[in-house]
Amino acid sequence: MATEVIDYGDVANWAAEHDGCLWVDSPARHRRSVLLDRASRIIDIVDQIEGGSHDICPVFHFGPEIQVELIGFCAFLSWPSSATPGTARLELPPGLSWSLRRAEIRTSPAGPGRRVSAFKLLGRGRCVAGTPLATRLEFSDTQMLPNSPFYQAVSWSMYGGCRGDEHDTQAEAR
Rounded to whole angstroms, how far apart are CA atoms 102 and 167? Predict the structure, then answer.
């Protein structure tokens, strides 16, 4: 896995790649670049899968305080009961089928913790070789960035979440 980070103050960019899928019948390499523009409060994520077309199942996991409403290829996020309430808009990669689900998560990833309900967005589809999957997260509350870490609001998993959905409940997706 290779990683590169550049930080210019108001703008930071980092990129990483992994080749952990080169052993499968149809090998693939996953590259991701992330651009954080602190001034405009936008995070752009671009994923590219090299090695031909592949069925993919991207998943966005949210913390238990995050409320999510899915409308087409946009998810509207809010965390009204947080110490620093806020909202954001998540523009999802088009060309995939998106659904909103509730899942049980542990409150402590390092230990047993208690289980709470949280939203996740599940995408399904086929990536086309050479076509990037672009995601944009735009915060609309001035209190959210840069004081609170991004990873507490949303994380993205390229290959996980396609199996084991039997413990999830389908939420309304318009």
Answer: 9
Give the count of alpha carbons within 13 A of 116, CB side only. Answer: 12
pTM for the predicted model, two decimal places: 0.73
Query: Where do the structural domains in the chain lie, given as residue ranges?
Result: 51-170
Task: Provide the β-strand partners of residue 118.
Answer: 103
End-to-end CA distance of the chain: 38
Quickly count: other Cβ atoms within 10 Å of residue 135's Cβ.
Answer: 23
Residue 129 makes CB contacts below 8 A (sequence gap 6+) with: 49, 50, 51, 52, 53
One-letter identity of residue 169: T
> pLDDT 10s digit of each residue in the chain, 174 long?
557 788 888 999 998 887 765 555 667 788 889 999 999 999 999 998 887 787 888 899 998 999 999 999 999 999 998 888 899 999 999 989 999 999 887 777 666 778 889 999 999 999 887 889 999 999 985 444 334 334 334 444 444 434 444 444 443 333
